[in-house]
Amino acid sequence: MKLLRIGPAGQEKPCILDNSGIRRDLSSVVDDIASKTLLPENIEVLCNLDLNHLPVISESERIGACVGNIGKLVCIGLNYADHASETGVPIPKEPIIFNKWTSAICGPNDEIIKPRNSTKLDWEVELGIVIGKPGIYIDEDHAEEHIAGYCVINDISERKFQLEQGGQWDKGKGCDTFGPIGPWLVTKDDAGDVTNLPMWLKVNEKIYQNSNTKMMVFHPNFLVSYLSNYMSLQSGDIISTGTPSGVGMGQKPPIFLKAGDIMELGIKNLGEQRQTVIST
What we know:
Radius of gyration: 18 Å
CATH superfamily: Fumarylacetoacetase-like, C-terminal domain
CATH architecture: Alpha-Beta Complex
CATH topology: Fumarylacetoacetate hydrolase, domain 2
Order of helices and strands: EEEHEHEEEEEEEHEEHEEHEEE
Strand order of the largest sheet: 3-2-1-13-10-9-16-4-5
Structural class: mainly beta
Helix content: 10-25%
């Protein structure tokens, strides 16, 4: 099942794709693709709907982030060995955790705003985990029970803010529009083996990232369990699981995004994104 949210920013309607790929309005069934809607019992209700009676939504309407009212967007750094290598640091012994502020979240095809004083704007295609059943101190063997589904995330990063201006990574990760999410929340039954999904990203038609989720150091179930030791995970929280090699700062010489650049990215079974960079 593929769930999405469609409409102007802040006014998105909950929607579902039918078997023909037609967008159907879920507003008569749920308020949003958020919080309690993502509980296992409510996901099951959506799976059993007769979609033919739901209104059709135009293909021309904007797609928003596939989850609404996100409480936490928790990110994992250096979770692919080849990305750690290209940045010149050892593979972490435990997951590196940072956050994106929820004000960074935007739709999968929204414009990316290059912040004021930005000089090293970068890209990162990532697998996102959407939490369904809340929990704390979750056993790894039961972690999948807490996952509602998966999505594509572009972890936009300003490397100067992140690495050269002191303090935590967060200041280079959480600027407005630095968290495109979607197009879909793909439930576990449709996502396939998320530990073996091809993923890619290109800038201005040139492929820079071309990898597979099987290259992760720490896999999704472990990450859900690990994070739950340090915070409760709530319905609608999202975990962004890290990126493979091929980011801009890893190029020789480094390449960074400028206004007018176009990013296209995707993960098999989970959909594709397309963003244009604009100046403030």
